[in-house]
């Protein structure tokens, strides 16, 4: 009976696993949404609906649900995770800080939204991703020059942020014209973590403090060092979004008009919906995901890949690179892809030329050094998944019967040898027969 139960469970899980993240379909499909109140499901329904419209299967669960689990029988049940539970002190079921970090380390994606009074657990998750929230639990980001004009916001905690990261691949090619409304806590980036990037920064006049108390000491976070929204692309190409505002994803701010202080332009709709939608596309690999296929190398004029090269051989190297568009793969076009012919250090570094259809190629001569070499591509570009390709190939010296019979460069030595023999012969005759 137990075997039948396990079989039925695996049968139910198989369709989910088949539709999960894969090299041929890199978009996350099934996403777990952890919330601390089911009211969030309705107050943030526009954001969730945009995900569902794009084909995602959202599983809404309370963050303290005792039956929570990210994996079963060694297989992950979800491709992505959204944590909209800033006040949760402890996750239910088998989920904890280590489980979430393992989830990301295995290549899955994460969206984390904090808020005022965020729990230590949420702060620890963000800190592990390179984002350090203000230690004061009551602190919020205040901006007396870049706030959003509002009759109900006398503390200037509703910020109209427009200092975006300049990256079309992360934020989309269409520029966000209206400022993004943000109310929440700020964070700084860990300088030791080079993988985390500020996507939305505070203005130079902003600071982080408790708006209900007078400042007795300088704020710990000030100016453009405050990050409102940050992203991380891990070395395994997992993607993370850290936001200091849960309200930024809400229907109310999606639909709200915005006018930034000091500006006469009033936008009928904030940039929140466009900003959040575009950045979620990047987080869940609908954009900026690369793959490399058909890596080939051969001698010039040949089609078969050899098992070994000889020094000074002329060879050709080629690879095809494609970018995922959310629905299918299209050729990736760039002029900064390089290949290394590597042994301990690069002996040859060549730019690959592309034909505009995804094919990158080059040709070069094998150096006059024998040993075990590698063709290496280590491609990293802002917003794109990294490509790391390597292919090992040995290089041998000339065999004894492959050298030229007479080496041109050795003619002077040949001449000196024969002249020495001729001189000795003439000297011997003169010495023997001269009286």
Polypeptide structure, described:
This protein is of the alpha+beta class and 435 residues long. It folds into three domains: 9-283, 3-Layer(aba) Sandwich (Rossmann fold), CATH 3.40.50.880; 289-396, Sandwich (Immunoglobulin-like); 404-435. The protein is built from nine helices and 26 strands. An eight-stranded mixed beta sheet has the order 2-1-5-6-16-15-13-10, with helices on both faces. Strands 17, 19, 20, 23 and 24 form a five-stranded antiparallel beta sheet that branches. Strand 21 (338-343) and strand 22 (345-351) form a beta hairpin. Helix 3 crosses helix 8 (272-283). The radius of gyration is 32 Å and the shape is elongated. The termini are far apart. Residues 1-21 have low confidence and may be disordered.
Task: List the defining traits of the structure above.
alpha+beta; Rossmann fold; Immunoglobulin-like; 8-stranded mixed β-sheet; 26 strands; disordered N terminus; membrane; OST48_MD
Structural class: alpha+beta
- CATH-level-2 architecture of the largest domain: 3-Layer(aba) Sandwich
Q: Nearest-angstrom radius of gyration?
A: 32 Å
Distance between the termini: 120 Å
Mean pLDDT: 88
- Strand count: 26
Provide the low-confidence segments as ranges. 1-21
Helical stretch tally? 9
CATH fourth-tier homologous superfamily of the largest domain:
Class I glutamine amidotransferase (GATase) domain
């Amino acid at each position: 009976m137990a075997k039948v139960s396990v079989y039925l469970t695996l049968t139910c899980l198989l369709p989910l696993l088949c539709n999960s993240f894969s090299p041929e379909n890199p978009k996350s499909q099934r996403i777990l949404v952890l919330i601390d109140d089911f009211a969030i499901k309705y107050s943030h329904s526009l954001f969730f609906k945009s995900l569902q419209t794009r084909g995602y299967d959202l599983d809404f669960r309370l963050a303290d649900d005792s039956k929570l689990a990210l994996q079963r029988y060694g297989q992950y049940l979800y491709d992505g995770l959204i944590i909209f539970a800033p006040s949760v002190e402890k996750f239910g079921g088998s989920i904890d800080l280590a489980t979430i970090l393992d989830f990301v380390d295995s290549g899955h994606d994460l969206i984390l939204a904090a808020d005022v009074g965020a729990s230590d657990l949420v702060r620890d998750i963000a800190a592990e991703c390179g984002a350090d929230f203000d230690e004061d639990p009551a602190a919020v980001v205040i901006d007396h020059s870049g706030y959003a004009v509002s009759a109900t916001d006398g503390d200037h905690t509703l910020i109209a942020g427009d200092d975006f990261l300049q990256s079309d691949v992360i934020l989309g090619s269409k520029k966000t014209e209206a400022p993004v409304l943000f109310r929440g806590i700020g964070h700084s980036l860990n300088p030791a973590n080079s993988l985390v990037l500020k996507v939305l920064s505070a203005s130079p006049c902003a600071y982080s403090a408790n708006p209900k108390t007078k400042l007795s000491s300088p704020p710990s976070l000030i100016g453009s060092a405050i990050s409102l929204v940050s992203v991380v692309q891990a070395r395994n190409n997992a993607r993370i979004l850290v936001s200091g505002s849960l309200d930024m994803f809400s229907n109310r701010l999606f639909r709200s008009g915005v006018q930034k202080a000091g500006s006469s332009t009033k936008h009928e709709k904030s940039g929140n919906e466009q900003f959040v939608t575009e950045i979620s596309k990047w987080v869940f690999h609908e954009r900026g995901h690369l793959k490399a296929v058909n890596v080939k190398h051969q001698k010039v004029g040949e089609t078969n890949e050899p098992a070994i090269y000889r020094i000074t051989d002329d060879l050709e190297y080629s690879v095809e690179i494609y970018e995922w568009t959310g629905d299918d793969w299209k050729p990736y076009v760039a002029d900064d892809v390089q290949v290394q012919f590597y042994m301990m250090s690069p002996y040859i570094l060549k730019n690959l030329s592309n034909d505009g259809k995804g094919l990158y190629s080059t040709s070069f001569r094998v150096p006059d050094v024998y040993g075990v070499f590698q063709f290496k591509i280590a491609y990293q570009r802002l917003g794109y998944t990294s490509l790391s390709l390597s292919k090992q190939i040995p290089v041998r010296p000339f065999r004894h019967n492959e050298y030229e019979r007479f080496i041109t460069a050795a003619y002077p030595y040949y001449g000196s040898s024969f002249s020495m023999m001729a001189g000795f012969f003439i000297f011997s005759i003169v010495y023997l027969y001269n009286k």
